[in-house]
Amino acid sequence: MARKAKETVILELKGLTVIADYFVICSGGSITQVKAITENIEAEFRKKSIRPLSVEGLRYAHWVLIDYGDVIVHAFEDQTRNYYELEKLWLDAPRVFIEEDEGVHRKRDITTAKGERYHQ
Hints:
Blueprint: E1 6-12, E2 22-28, H1 31-47, E3 54-56, E4 63-67, E5 71-77, H2 78-84, E6 95-101, E7 104-111, E8 117-119
Parallel strand pairs: 2-5
Antiparallel strand pairs: 1-2, 1-6, 3-4, 4-5, 6-7, 7-8
């Protein structure tokens, strides 16, 4: 599916920064796919009457940032994500893994960058 993000990582930033509570980092194989991912994310939030505070980078779509306040979404084109390696800036942030179960996302377990895992 063209709108499906790949390699999605959720970083829990609570207590590490005041920027946001979570970063959602995902990628698409092309600029067109990154735009589609971004549009899909915005549409899903709009269904819940949630509008972004800002959207940056959509014109060129190598790296699109969607700011929802406590949650900031970073949608990257693959090569741009590999270049910036944003996840490495937040090595102390726990990673929240999700499973898709008939369209429902739920927390499964959390792993810190140091490899510590716990179930939630």
